[in-house]
Design goal:
four-stranded parallel sheet, 9 strands, about 40% helix
Length: about 300
């Protein structure tokens, strides 16, 4: 199952059978979680450390829950109170983590490539929980599982990814995964928020919502990441919503049964209207959260089997 690689650092480079196998395993964990029989000892005696250099609610909590449901000892390192905040380097942190003999290390970092650097220095299996503007692989996996459960497939679907693509690691992971599994990807947003060379990946770029949403089966909205912006890349929030925010009027440009997604956290009234986000039939946003736990259980399951630690 998958490659011999003991880390999950990105979706780029993964083959369709690898992705499908992970989604199939995650599907079994969805059923297990819904049954209420979640106690498992697969990771008993293993240690999972959540090392988050950036704020997170959904991702960190779902990794914590996934680890505990599989029987792992879970440690959440509060970076704000750790030696990192006192000037410790990432490599010094790696040495400290190695001394702790942890088995699984979940890392979120503001710099692209930080999890990959740690993966070279620690004995644990490293999972990228989002690095800079690079990738967020488990988010793409949970998005794919959410779509597959509702639509039955990804091949042939048109997925429109809208908003701040430039700064979105979620968009990058989703682009690689969706194209690998045969979806067509539309990117929609103002020119200032679309990477200049992204069309080379095989996506189609639009700057107009009406044209970009035409024929879309899935509409995936992205948060405006103002913390990563360095100037006037967008007009006011009101103007952004007017042209690129998803409301019922713009959603009508997509297929009549198009479904809506958002990785969270949402800026209501900026990239998405509340009535669209909360639509009980067309919104998959709550389901995405549920799928996150199952996908992360599957990832921990697979990588724990490859850990180099001697039992």
């Amino acid at each position: 199952m998958l490659t011999p690689n003991r880390h999950l650092l990105q979706i780029e480079g993964m083959h369709p059978p690898e992705i499908a196998a992970l989604l199939d395993l995650a599907e079994s964990y969805v059923l297990l979680n819904r049954s209420g029989k979640t106690g498992r000892d697969l990771l008993r005696g293993r240690t999972l450390i959540n090392l988050f250099f950036e704020d997170s609610t959904r991702t960190r909590t779902s990794f914590e829950l996934a680890g505990k449901r599989l029987g792992a000892d879970v440690i959440n390192m509060a970076v704000a109170q750790s030696s990192v905040n006192k000037g410790e380097t990432l490599l010094d942190t790696a040495a400290t983590l190695n001394a702790m003999n942890c088995d699984l290390l979940v890392v979120r970092h503001g710099q692209s490539g930080a999890p990959a650097l740690l993966a070279q220095k620690v004995e644990a299996s490293v999972i990228n929980a989002g690095d800079g503007t690079h990738e967020h692989p488990t988010q793409a996996l949970l998005d794919a599982l959410t779509i597959r459960r509702r639509r039955g497939r990804l091949e042939g679907l048109v997925v429109a990814i809208c908003g701040d693509v430039l700064h979105s690691r979620v968009a990058r992971s989703n682009i690689h995964l969706l194209l690998a599994l045969g979806s067509r990807v539309h990117l929609i947003g103002p020119p200032t928020l679309i990477p200049t060379d992204v069309a080379r990946l095989g996506v189609t770029v639009f700057h107009d919502m009406k044209a970009g949403l035409a024929g879309a089966d899935i509409v995936m909205m992205l948060r405006l990441q103002k913390e990563r912006m360095t100037g006037g890349l967008v007009p006011s929030a009101r103007e952004f919503f007017r042209f690129w925010g998803l409301d019922a009027e713009k959603l009508a440009y997509a297929r009549p049964d198009a479904l809506v997604m958002h990785p969270g956290p949402m800026n209501r009234g900026v990239e998405i209207a509340s009535d669209v986000a909360d639509d009980p039939i067309r919104s998959l946003i709550k389901e995405q959260v549920e799928m996150g736990v199952a996908v992360r259980m599957a990832v921990l399951d697979v990588l724990s089997r490859r850990a180099k630690r001697n039992d």
